[in-house]
Each structure stands twice: as C-alpha cells, then as structure tokens.
C-alpha cells in the first residue's frame, strides 16, 4: 500500500497526459481493426507473447528461444500482414475531415442541383429494382480505381446515371466513381471486403462497397437488384434499406459538409448487425 501511495503522490500532469494519449491511440487502433481479419491476428500475436513470457517463467528454454527468435523478426512480418490496415490508418490520420469535400470544392447551388440529380436517379433505380453502385471520392484519391473503368468525365445527371446501370449494357456491372461534381468513370472494378463476418445474404455489390470504404474514406451508395433497397457504406460499415430522406442527409454530408447531428451514428446498431 505504501508503494501505491508513493506512485499516486509522484504522478504529474504530464504522466496523466502520457497515459491518456497511449489509451487514445490503443482505442483508435482497436476501432480501426474491429470487424476485420486483423483483429484475429492481434489475438494470435497476444497469445504468442503470453506463451513466450510463460516459457521464460517455467524455464522452457527451447520453446522460449524459438518464440523469442520469432518475435525478433516479427516486426517485418507485422508490416506485411497488416499492410492494408496500416495504409488505412495512415490515410485516416492524414484526413482533415472524414465525410466531406474540401471547403474550396463546395458550392451550395451546384451541390443542391447535384444532390437532386443523384436522388432522382437512385430513387428511379430503386423503384425499377435495377442494381447500382456509386462511389463518392473524398480525401483519398481513387485514380487507381478510376483507371479500371471507362473514363466519362461528364456532368452528373439522373438520366446518365440511370442509363449506365440499365441491365445488359456494357457498364452496368461496374461502379460509377463521382469526383466532386462530375462522373469520373463507370464500369470500375472495386476490391471486395476481407470481412468474413458478414451475413450470407450480402451480395457482391455490397461487398465491393465495403471493400472500397475499408481502403479509403469514400462513401458508397448501393441499390439492390433483388429488393430495390437503397443502402450505403462508409468506413467499412454497411447501412441497409435507408429512406430517401436519409439518402438526402448522406448526400448533404458529402456536398455541403453539414455539421452535427451525426447522421452516421443514427444507424450504428442497424449497421452492426450485418457483421454477425
């Protein structure tokens, strides 16, 4: 007890700040790998570290030498294994804003017009049960993804968006990439999510949307071909069957950078259940 009392007496404000920063970083690190395969790798690494310590305590010299040798080269292995997660973490740190375009890109009148065109197109596709996948580029550049499709570089219009996704047309299976106020490309191929905890009824479009938002800060809009439901994905999380009013709020967050309330928190529990 005397030692504990001395510890508390010698704690300074800088020690508290130091502990708070470490806790914050650990928490953010956990949130970044939550619901991803990296979570399982972290558990495995923690188990190896514990066994290494126990082997030293019980003087299991051969096992201790093997595990210690493994851990010495483990850093390089971690960089290789966690490459997607590390890249995502660094991109996250480099963003000024997660859900909005830069202030210089915003123009209220143009934004309202674009939002109306996208809402009209998505509503029409939903009614006709035509599958669609639209990706909004934000801070993270998507040039590599754009290069996989057909360059369009056109103004955004509901008619063009609808025609792109009409079945049996050349571009209907891929994703449309929207960069600021223009359609950059269509028919683009997206990386699928690595999440193996998704519900079995999640289709390829939704998995591609999740994969894209896991690797960037992009927002993905999805229209289901089977049900006509409108969904969106952001930050590796899927929110399904949203209403038109909710779609408009998502678009406002992209084009107007509207402040709180945090509309993305509203459906947090609804999104989480699709990862079970």
Describe the protein.
With 276 residues, the protein is α+β, with helices and mostly antiparallel strands. The chain has helices at residues 2-9, 13-33, 37-57, 61-72, 74-81, 83-94, 108-128, 143-146, 158-164, 204-215, 244-255, 263-266, 268-272, and strands at residues 132-137, 150-155, 175-179, 182-188, 219-223, 230-234, 237-239. It contains 13 helices and 7 strands. The longest helix is centred in the first third of the chain and has 21 residues, at 13-33. It is elongated, with a radius of gyration of 23 Å. The two termini are 45 Å apart. 27% of the residues are buried.
> How much is the average pLDDT?
79
What is the tally of helical segments? Answer: 13
Gap between N and C termini, in Å? 45 Å
* Helix content bin: 40-55%
What best-fitting shape do the alpha-carbon axes yield? elongated
Largest sheet: 7 strands, mixed
Order of secondary-structure elements: HHHHHHHEHEHEEHEEEHHH
């Amino acid at each position: 007890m005397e030692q504990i009392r001395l510890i508390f007496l010698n704690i300074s404000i800088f020690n508290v700040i130091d502990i708070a920063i470490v806790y914050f970083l650990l928490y953010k690190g956990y949130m970044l790998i939550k619901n991803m395969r990296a979570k399982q790798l972290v558990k495995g690494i923690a188990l190896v570290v514990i066994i290494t310590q126990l082997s030293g305590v019980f003087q299991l010299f051969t096992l201790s030498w093997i595990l210690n040798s493994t851990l010495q080269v483990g850093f390089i292995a971690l960089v290789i294994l966690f490459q997607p997660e590390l890249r995502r973490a660094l991109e996250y740190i480099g963003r000024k804003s997660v859900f909005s375009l830069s202030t210089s890109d915003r123009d209220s009148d143009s934004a309202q017009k674009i939002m109306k065109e996208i809402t009209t197109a998505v509503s029409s596709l939903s009614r006709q049960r035509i599958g669609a996948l639209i990706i909004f580029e934000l801070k993270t550049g998507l040039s590599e993804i754009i290069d996989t499709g057909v360059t369009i570089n056109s103004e955004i219009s509901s008619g063009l968006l609808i025609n792109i996704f009409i079945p049996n047309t050349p571009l209907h299976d891929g994703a449309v990439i929207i960069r600021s106020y223009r359609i950059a490309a269509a028919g683009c191929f997206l990386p699928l999510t690595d999440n193996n905890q998704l519900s079995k009824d999640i289709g390829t479009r939704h998995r591609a949307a999740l994969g894209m938002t896991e690797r960037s800060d992009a927002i993905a809009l999805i229209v289901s071909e089977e049900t006509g439901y409108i969904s969106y994905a952001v930050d590796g999380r899927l929110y399904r069957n949203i209403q038109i009013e909710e779609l408009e709020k998502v678009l406002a967050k992209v084009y107007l950078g509207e402040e709180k309330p945090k509309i993305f928190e509203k459906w947090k529990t609804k999104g989480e259940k699709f990862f079970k």
